[in-house]
């Protein structure tokens, strides 16, 4: 019998249960029918942060950023490319700290970009600053698999 994973739908927030081996089969949400993984980072907000991050058994890496931040803008394509490679083993998500001040404060964001790895809704590791793709991929593997 396969391990059942809880996956929060990025579109409607519904919790979906599916066997781990189904992750690679491009599963859709049981409620809204939209894909659970799109090979693009999920947009997090004050409203959906808890349901997405705390409601998903797949490790999640959150990029805390802001539109005015030069290093954030330079790192955005790296993060996007990593999402195409890492999903569905990991979910990548972005949190605009200016647009979502409650969540940014709750996370204690003091500099951006800040990358935070979560597993089962609990913070595992964080790092501030942008990095090249290869270094970021290594950091994700180490941080999220603790």
CATH hierarchy class name: Alpha Beta
- Oligomeric nature of the chains: single chain
> Low-confidence stretches at least 5 residues in length (pLDDT < 50)?
none
Distance between the termini: 24 Å
Alpha carbon gyration radius: 14 Å
Instruction: Compute the average pLDDT.
Output: 94
Percentage of residues in strands: 25-35%
Major β-sheet annotation? 5 strands, mixed
Query: Could you estimate the helical fraction of the residues in percent?
Result: 25-40%
For the biggest β-sheet, the strand order reads: 3-5-4-6-7
Enumerate how many helices there are, as a single number.
4
Summarize this structure briefly:
With about 150 residues, the protein is of the alpha/beta class. The chain has helices at about 50-55, 70-85, 100-105, 135-145, and strands at about 5-10, 15-20, 40-45, 60-65, 90-95, 115-120, 120-130.
Describe the model.
Helix content is 28%, strand content 26%. It is of the alpha/beta class. It has one domain: Glutaredoxin (3-Layer(aba) Sandwich), CATH 3.40.30.10. The protein has a five-stranded mixed β-sheet with strand order 3-5-4-6-7, sandwiched between helices. The chain is globular, with a radius of gyration of 14 Å. The model has no long low-confidence stretch (mean pLDDT 94).
Topology:
Elements: E1 4-8, E2 15-19, E3 42-44, H1 49-53, E4 60-65, H2 70-86, E5 91-96, H3 101-107, E6 114-119, E7 122-128, H4 133-144
Parallel strand pairs: 3-5, 4-5
Antiparallel strand pairs: 1-2, 4-6, 6-7
Write a concise keyword list for the protein shown above.
two-stranded antiparallel sheet; single chain; 7 strands; Glutaredoxin; five-stranded mixed sheet; 146 residues
């Amino acid at each position: 019998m396969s391990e059942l994973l809880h996956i929060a739908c990025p579109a409607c927030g519904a919790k979906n249960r599916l066997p781990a081996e189904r992750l690679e089969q491009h599963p859709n949400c049981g409620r809204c029918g939209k894909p659970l993984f799109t090979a693009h980072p999920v947009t997090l907000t004050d409203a959906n942060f808890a349901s997405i991050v705390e409601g998903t058994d797949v490790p999640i890496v959150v990029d805390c950023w802001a539109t005015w931040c030069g290093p954030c803008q330079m790192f955005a394509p790296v993060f996007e490319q990593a999402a195409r490679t890492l999903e569905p083993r990991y979910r990548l998500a972005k949190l605009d700290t200016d647009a979502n001040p409650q969540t940014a404060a709750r996370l204690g964001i003091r500099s951006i970009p800040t990358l935070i790895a979560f597993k089962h809704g609990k913070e595992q590791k964080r790092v501030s600053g942008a990095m090249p793709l290869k270094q970021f991929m290594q950091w994700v593997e180490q941080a999220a698999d603790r």
